Amino acid sequence: MKHSKPTERTKVKVVLPGDTVSLDVTTPGIILGPGLIQAGDSISCTKAGFLVRSGPTYWVENDQKRYIPETSEHVVGRISGKGGEFYRVDIGSAHQAILPFLAFENATKKNRPNLNIGDLIYARVALANKDMDPELQCYNPTNNKAEGFGKLEGGMVLKCSLRYCQRLLTQETDICKLLGQVLQFEVSIGMNGRVWLSSDTIKHISLVYNVLKQAEALNNSECKALVNNLVV
Amino acid sequence: MVKELELSTNEKELIISGLKEGIRLDGRGIDDFRSLKITLGPEYGRSEVKLGDTKVLAKVSCEVARPYPDRPNEGILTLNTELSPMAFAGLEPGRPSEEEVLVSRILEKAIKINRAVDVEGLCIVANELAWSIHVDVHFLDNDGNIIDAACIAAISALSHFRRPDVTVIGEDVTIHPVDQRNPVPLSIHHTPICVTFAFFENGDLWVVDPSLKEEQIRRGDMIIAINNHKEICVLSKAGGLPLEMHTIIQCSKLAASKVDWVREKIQDAIANAAEVEKRCYLILLLFLFILYEF
After folding, report:
1. Does the keyword Nuclease apply (chain B) (predicted)?
2. Alpha-carbon distance B131 to nearest alpha carbon in chain A (angstroms)
3. Quick check: A152 and B21 CB within 8 A?
């Protein structure tokens, strides 16, 4: 999946829940992102973290690990049960998600997907609503193709903060590129704070797992030092 | 087990395949402990243990109480190891889980029932007054093997603790406040330290000091507590898959060498704490000297 690099983003200040932020509300075109809420004429924060601005958009960034599903996000889930015509999937949200048997490429009533409890899948959030269980689908709705969604074979799952997953996906952190120069591996990044990773040998998988785990707290130059010191 | 913490089939298979090749997820050998860091102080009897990402805090406190009527010449030692949702997601506070019962039983067997602390020395006046020592163990973070970490924390806290000095002249009992007379350490007979083994598949695969992921897929476990006299204080194998005799003997020998390593770490921590205390005392003396000079 191609993702463009983010445009220039600047940290404005540190905010706590309840803080009022003074932005020019009258200027049209200001977009409030996650963590900000408009109450009448004032804008207040609902999360603790950095207030970040990119162009006309403001939002709050922090290290939270708790996932709140949003439509069209890609997630890594684990099958936790089977219901009538669907699978129950644990994506780390408050409620287990639903993955209907028909939500796969080329699925028909006769042709069921072959997934078991405990399997890992890469899926897209089709429906996310705070009053309902989230729903997933394993195909791209625009062209009905699987495009990488579906069962993930082997490998390991790393649980991290949501922000780190964003940084990996948009390549804001160079760790994947740097590590890719040393050994071959593949990753499926879920926006729910889970990253599936796999490589050719168990030793390499455990190496990638530990490197990605450590790199969450490192900046790009420290990542470079980490990769340079690796014994593959 | 909370749904979020359950492992996927991929993870389970990877860990088992890794163990078959002698590889653990964090790069350790199968008989390696994680990095152990023990911090004692600043108060006497406070010990914080970090075993990898597992964090345990033990605090020892004392009070004067009446001895139990059936043991009039002994003091009282109480170990409290309540699990809390802080480290254990999905735990219902108030109702002791199976794990909690196991942790508290093992620690009691190792420390209390094996008489690691001299409780007779805690008696002040027979039948009337005795020291009641409380060891409170708090679990701050759980990444597997809380029993070993809790035992290290409790033992190091008890070794570091000082109680107020007492003088008994006939009927007169004087408990000296700590600012008037130096507090006195507890009399420790021996220091038992636990080593946990986790077993997988049909008992052929095993590891020392399992992490949380390894604990979740283990088929059996065994806890051996050995003291500084090389005596086995506790050997606990509660359920799980059956083990061969030679495995148990091999594990006990390995446990003995691991316990030596842990004991060295505890001695280092106690020495460090004493050094820090001495330095603080010297700085205080210097400060007072300068103050009086001017």
Report:
1. no
2. 46
3. no
